[in-house]
Every structure is written in structure tokens, then in C-alpha cells.
Amino acid sequence: MTSRPGRPRAVKPLRTQRLWHPFADMGRLGSEVVFERGEGAWIYDTTGRRYLDGSAGLWYCNVGHGRAELAEAAAVQMRKLASYQIFDRFANQPALELAERLTELTPTRDAGAVFFTSGGSDAVDTAAKIARRYWSAGGHPERQILVAREGAYHGVNAFGTSLSGIPANASGWGVLVPDTVQVDRHSIDALDELLRLHAGQVAAFIAEPVQGAAGVHPPAPGYWSAVQELCRRHDVLLIVDEVVTGFGRLGEWFGSSRFDIRPDLLVCAKGLSSGYMPIGAVVAGERILDVLWSADAGAFRHGYTYSGHPAACAVALANLDIIEEECLIQRVRALEPVLERELRALGAHPMIDEVRAVGLLAGIELSEQRRALIPDLGERVVTGARERGVLVRNLLGKTLQISPPFVIKEEEIAFIAAVLTAVLDDLAAGDV
Asked: Residue 381 — left, alpha, or beta (φ > 0 → left; ψ -120 to 50 → alpha)?
């Protein structure tokens, strides 16, 4: 028996990589930077080199790296009760205490209750399901539409991906959740028109107090008061996504407090534990509970294995203690003008179009003209900064994210600005 001639078989590359990185082009990854430890605003790799963490990991390490007291809080709880589910009537003391504390801190319309999740993406999906279930249980199942803003980032689960206002994040998956739409990020008129067009069909409007992943876009004056008026007029639930802005990032416990927002549902994660344990939460106001906790509402058939995880809740409580006892929110207020001053100087650089800053959160938008000439400009700036000992992130290829830990010092903020200036100077001169 003779074998049939055919095309030669392609030889697959030998793969030694075993870790699949999120948001990475694995075909072009190259060498990894392997981190080993952190202290304050600094993080160290396995070669001993240190980097100033200009982005607090993924916006989350509010109290800084290397907090032994948070490790101890986890250890103490794990020695007593490492984990047990809170479905049905079960509970644990850290979850009960943290729920009480969050309802006191969050500016929902009325004191309500907390639904714990494993992180921000889970919390967004939970809030979206709560909103739709609220209307269904209240006799209005036709209210299904969820409205988000262009440029929105609400995590990567099914609801969050469908609500995404960042096309690159939403494309390629097919239709995950129907009846999700986006409106212009700044236009009150566009939101009003959409709510009128779909009168009686909209379940909720979801938005970040300050858009993060889209490039750090603070709201225009009066935006949030107008949004709340529209939601009241059209009887639409308001969901505020505080995953990035919560727990002091904007100089208040929540961005909602800074912009005088009173949401029906507030979503939080990241800074809740400063990233020391995976945890997220949805804080629901009394309007929601009046329907979904009523005697005839039935079970809310939703939850996660690690909802209310005892060790995660214990760490979150200890994290909140640090923020309070070390006056870190007041520290953010004091450092806000420092960060703005140092970064505003970059605004005059020929490689920069705009600098947007609020609290300890900033977006440095790279020149559109220069990006057209250097398509990978964002990555080149990030790489150049890393080689000089500063970690910042590239948002959508056009904006540099600055969101350091709250424990950063003034001279360290100046170091971030100096390094970025040096990198931009080199790029402008064609030396990089």
C-alpha cells in the first residue's frame, strides 16, 4: 500500500510557555517579567530589580504592597475557618461584619444589603441580573434593556462583555447577552433620546463615575445630576460601577460621593481588599430589597462558590481598617494636586495631546498625530518606562494609565513624571 502524496505537514513550534496571560497576544508575548515581592509603592522582580508601581497593579493596590497585617488577617481567619459557603441560611462572622460596614460606607439611595462575589466582573453580572430580576418580580418583565456608555468597561463576564463600550473587548464573541446598548459617553441628550425611544423597556443604566479603561475620562460638570434626573423621570434603575473608583481612589470612599450620586445598585471590588484577596460586592438599596426580599419573591437563584469567603472578607475588613487608621483617603486628597501638577507639565510635550486627572487617577493621552506615525507608540512608552523602573499601563494604545498606591510619596510621583518625560523625549528624538 502506497501513501498518497500530499502537502508537507507543518511543524508546530515547540511551546514551553504554560501560563496563558489575560489580555495578551500569546503568539508575540516574548520574555516574561516575573515579580517576586512588593513593598509600599514598589515591586521587585526575580532578578532583584525594583519598579515603581504607577498603576497599583490593575488599579487595586490602594494600601500598597507588602502589608503584613493583611497576610496576618488571612492567616488568623484561615486557622479558624478557611472557607464555607453562604448559600441558603449559612453565614460567617467576617461576611456579616463586612456587609454591615459596606452598607454604612456606600452612598446607595437607602441603607440596603450586600451581595458578595469573587471580583468585579462577577459583581457586574450580579448587578445586571438583579436589575432584570427586579423588574420581572415586580410585574414588568418587558424591562430588559441595559444601557451603558461608549468607552465603558464593566469586566469580561457575559453581561460585562456585552455592555462593553470598547469595541475590541466586545467583538469576536458573538451575541452573549441581548438587549444591551451603548450611548455617547458625555451626551445627556443621547441618553434622554434612548430612554424615550425605549420607554418602559429599559431596566437600568450602568456607568463608572470616571471612565477608567477607556482612558480616564472624568464627567463634565452637571453630568451626573442630569443622569439621575433622567433615571428618575423614566423610572430606570441606576447602577454605578465603582470597581476602579471605590475605596478612596478619588479622594472619597466612593466616586459616587464625590459626584453626589445615589445609585440603586453599587458595584465594587479591587480596592475592597487592595487586591490581597479576590473579592467583589454589589450593594443594593432598599428599593431593590422591597421587591426581591418580599415574602412572595422566591429564591434569588444566583451566587458563587466563594461569595462571602471568610478569609477574603477578613482581609477586606483589615484593609478598610488600614485606610481609616492611616487616613489614606485624606492622603489621596493631599496628593491629588501633586499628581496633577507633575503630570500637567507633560501636557505641553509634543508627544502628548491631553492629560486628564482626578484624585490619584490620571490618563495621559498620546498625540494622535504621533500615533499615526508610530502605531505601537503606547507600548513603546510603557516598555521604555519599565526599563527605567516605572510601571504604567497602555490603555487602548493611546492613553497611559497612572493610578499609584495611596502610600506613594511626592518624590515618587515626581519620579514617574521624570521617567515618562525622558522616554517621550527619546521617542520624539527618534532614539527609541
From this structure: alpha
CA distance 337 to 341: 6
pLDDT at 212 over 60: yes
Q: Where are the extended beta strands (E) located within 154-256?
A: 180-183, 202-207, 237-241
Whether residue 242 is predicted with pLDDT greater than 90 in this model: the reply is yes
Contact partners, residue 6, CB within 8 Å, separation at least 6: none
DSSP label at residue 117: E
| Nine-digit cell string for 407 | 502610600
User: Closest Cα partner for 149 from 111, 105, 188?
Assistant: 188
What residue has cell string 484577596?
A: 277
Closest CA to 108 of 269, 317, 286, 323: 286
| Phi, psi (deg, nearest 5) at residue 378 | -60, -45
The C-alpha cell that represents 343 in the structure block: 503630570
Specify which residues 113 forms β-bridges with: 284
CA 205, CA 159: separation in Å to the nearest integer?
A: 13
pLDDT of 15 reads 73
Domains of the chain: 26-66+327-428 (3.90.1150.10), 69-325 (3.40.640.10)
Checking if the pLDDT of 390 tops 90, the result is yes
Quick check: 43 and 61 in contact, CB under 8 A? no
d(CA 106, CA 63): 19
Mean pLDDT of 276-292: 97
In sequence order, what DSSP letters do the residues of 306-367 get, joined into one string? TTT-HHHHHHHHHHHHHHHHTTHHHHHHHHHHHHHHHHHGGGGSTTEEEEEEETTEEEEEEP
pLDDT computed for residue 4 by the predictor: 56
387: cell is 526599563
* pTM for the structure as a whole: 0.95
Q: Please state the φ and ψ torsions of residue 146, each to the nearest 5 degrees.
A: -115, 130
The Cα–Cα gap between 314 and 94 comes to 5
User: pLDDT tens digit string along 80-104?
Assistant: 999 999 999 999 999 999 999 999 9
Instruction: For residue 241, give the nearest of 227, 255, 220, 229 by alpha carbon.
Output: 255
With CA atoms as reference, report the closest residue to 60 among 401, 411, 420, 415: 401
Give me the chain's average pLDDT, please: 95
